[in-house]
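Support reply, case 0932

Customer input (verbatim):
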Amino acid sequence: MTRLVLVVSCHNEGSRLKAQPFLHLVASKRDVRLLFVDDGSTDATPAILADILSGGGTRISVLTESGNAGEAEAVRRGILAALEERPELVGYWNADLSTPLSELQYFLETFDAHPDVDIVMGARIRMLGRDVNRRPLRHYAGRLFATAASLALGVPVYDTQCGATILRATDAVGHAFRAPFLSRSVMDVEVLARYMAFTGRASALSRICELPVRAWTAGANLRTSKMGVRSTLHALWDLGRIWRQSRRI
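Our regenerated output:
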């Protein structure tokens, strides 16, 4: 039985997408399946995905989109397809593996230890004994956005942009992905807002867990490392739209 279907969205990831870590994951964890979403790539990504698919057999599948819908929509479509398989868990992970797949085991252990938890989100916290490397500008811009997200949601969330999230395949989680997202870049905040609207804020607080990752490398994501103040301002604008929508629910 498949315990987890992990969605990996890809758009022109040819220079970053590495087959071996994904193949090692499905070889070592027989209850995990991978679902790649090719979001209209025009580079070598389709060829790399074909190689990964051939090496992973039935444990890996690829959903190909005809055009570039954006990461949020690609993940949403992937999660909906994953839910149709009726696994225990679904999730999404950055294709560049800024959060290494070795971290996945700690997410699964959190679900084992806490049966009432529905959402486990990675959080990038620099602590002794953890290998979390972020560029200073990105770190401070991220803290600004995280503070705004926390205020908008009314919950003490530390980090919504880690790129590694696992969710229990419940009706509440399915509801969070049912409709297209408002934003192409801050999907995680929208997922939380929708989940809380469905379950109620008080119940949601006990069912969402942030897990400090042991390793995260900004340099693995070349596009993210080039983002700065402008992208943060755009994300804050999207956050305002999400906040206004949540007030109407």
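We compared this against your earlier run and they match. Two observations from our side: Residues 97-249 form one domain. The beta strands are 4-10, 32-39, 60-65, 89-93, 119-123, 131-133, 164-168, 208-212, 215-217. Please reopen the case if you see a mismatch on your end.
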